[in-house]
Design brief:
alpha/beta, 15% strand, Rossmann fold, seven-stranded mixed β-sheet
Length: 253
């Protein structure tokens, strides 16, 4: 009976007053559903994320360890950026909005993600810039990169980087810059594997994730004052299993 009552209460409780939903609703309301800081400040956002944290994106603190690298990529004005594992389009649409002359190719295997990318692109008037594709395999990645000098690859594929970031299968990577999220928990040793694969062709910068805390959430309400601080910590976290890291790799010379 108690379990039945608990489940019924959950069903009858509006999403907006559940703690994990409350923070998202509050962020949407206070930001006007636009990113308020970081490299993509002013980006119009949709009402959800796909497979990743939502509130940090609206706050502009999502993967903030990479902000300086993102600015370097923007300053280089590449003719092509390929985003593999694009989710709802945080990077693909965000970079398109900063680089109006750059072609964007967004690979996303989830249909919900592809729909979201299209919505984001339309909301930011970059639909003509962003090509949305489904599953990425080595042959397809090589095809879109081949002959594109100075291209940039952004990749977050939950361990499948072990297959895709292989210069033997994708020789066009030799002249591409890439920003890769490493998934050591999914493929133990992948950090060293990637380093060995590209040690002759690229200079690699290893970047580690930093902690988030309740201090990163800028608004306080009656509800937030009543909730344990750990709920606010959770709202700004990126929901990652262990501490994550990235490689920013640029071709030598």
């Amino acid at each position: 009976m108690l379990r039945f009552a608990t489940n019924l209460a959950r069903k009858l409780t509006p999403d907006a007053v559940r703690p994990y939903r409350y923070f998202a609703a509050l962020a949407r309301d206070r930001t006007g559903q636009q990113v308020i800081d970081g490299p993509f400040k002013g980006l119009r956002y949709i009402d959800r994320s796909v497979g990743s944290a939502y509130v940090p994106k609206l706050l502009g603190i999502y993967e903030r360890e990479l902000a300086a690298v993102v600015e370097k990529i923007i300053a280089s004005k590449p003719s092509l950026i390929v985003d593999v594992g694009a989710a709802e389009g945080y990077y693909a649409v965000g970079l398109a909005s900063r680089l109006p002359d750059t072609q964007m190719i967004a690979f996303e295997m989830e249909a919900s993600g592809r729909t979201a990318i299209a919505e984001m692109a339309a909301a930011n008037n970059v639909t003509d810039q962003v090509t949305i594709l489904a599953t990425c395999e080595p042959e397809g990645l090589n095809a879109v990169l081949d002959g594109k000098s100075g291209a940039v690859v952004i990749m977050d594929v939950e361990g499948y980087e072990s297959v895709l970031l292989d210069p033997a299968k994708v020789p066009a990577l030799a002249t591409a810059t890439f920003l890769l999220e490493l998934h050591e928990f999914a493929v133990p040793g992948i950090t060293e594997i990637i380093a060995q694969r590209f040690e002759k062709t690229h200079d690699l910068q290893h970047i580690w994730a930093e902690d988030r805390s309740r201090a990163d959430f800028p608004w306080r309400t009656t509800v937030t004052s009543l909730l344990p601080g750990s709920y606010i910590d959770g709202a700004v976290s990126e929901m990652r299993p262990p501490r994550m890291s990235w490689y920013y790799a640029r071709p030598k010379g």
